[in-house]
Specification:
Layout (H helix, E strand, L loop, with lengths): L2 H24 L3 H26 L2 H33 L13 H25 L3 H4 L1 H17 L3 H23 L4 H29 L4 H8 L1
Length: 225
């Protein structure tokens, strides 16, 4: 693969990766949010595979395919199952973020500011070794910040799970772009930890819904009060 083609494809994959995080802030339907998260998993896998193809590392390509299977296949499947259970129990009442703590316009503006902050913070790192991968580092950092923003501003438990996974995707992308890949055993360990966390969160969400009839954080806080 030529350097020019590699740079162009990496820029496209990183752009899609960041755009998916922004779309999560824009959409309110949980079904659409899960689909966008799956597409971000595809973009993350493409980033890793491109790094492996450029460096001619088959182990890194295999890791990229594994990342894609988990982030674009297994995790969205588990979240779709949780959504199906919500629809079966509560109809369409809880499959939409009706009143996030920050409205859509302010959320998109915040995403733009967080992206600028990520580029400002990562600028010294990119200047040390200005390769195509390191120049894309701000994208991973921006997704980390956006994921944390989703985590703290969404009221539905499942939307907060997506925020947590966006945060993890951003950390994973930053690690690969900064180090040109992590050891296979490390990535497998982290991936299984994330899978376990999502399974636990899905079980907790189901139990909360069965006990209190809602997964809205504000409603649960009122019950506590």
């Amino acid at each position: 693969m030529s350097n020019g083609l590699y740079t162009q494809l990496l820029d496209v994959a990183c752009g899609a990766f960041l755009l998916a995080a922004v779309i999560v802030l824009w959409r309110r339907e949980l079904v659409a949010i899960v689909r966008v998260f799956a597409l971000q998993g595809v973009a993350l896998a493409a980033i890793v595979v491109l790094l492996g193809a450029h460096e001619e590392r088959w182990d890194l390509i295999a890791v990229g395919l594994g990342v894609g299977l988990l982030r674009a296949g297994v995790l969205p499947y588990l979240m779709r199952r949780a959504l199906t259970a919500l629809v079966a129990d509560r109809g369409s009442e809880e499959v939409r973020e009706t009143q996030p703590l920050v409205n859509v316009a302010a959320s998109l503006l915040t995403a733009a500011l967080l992206t600028l902050l990520a580029y400002a913070v990562a600028r010294p790192l990119t200047q040390l070794n200005p390769t195509p991968a390191t120049r894309a580092l701000p994208v991973g950092l921006a997704v980390v910040l956006i994921g944390f923003f989703v985590l703290v501003t969404r009221r539905r438990a499942l939307a907060q799970v997506v925020g947590f996974l966006l945060l993890d995707n951003g950390i994973t992308a930053t690690a690969f772009l900064a180090t040109s890949g992590v050891p296979l055993i490390v990535e497998l360990g982290v991936s299984f930890d994330v899978l376990l966390a999502v399974l636990v969160l899905q079980i907790l969400t189901t139990r909360i819904r069965e006990a209190f009839g809602t997964t809205d954080i504000d409603d649960l806080r009122e019950l506590h009060d």
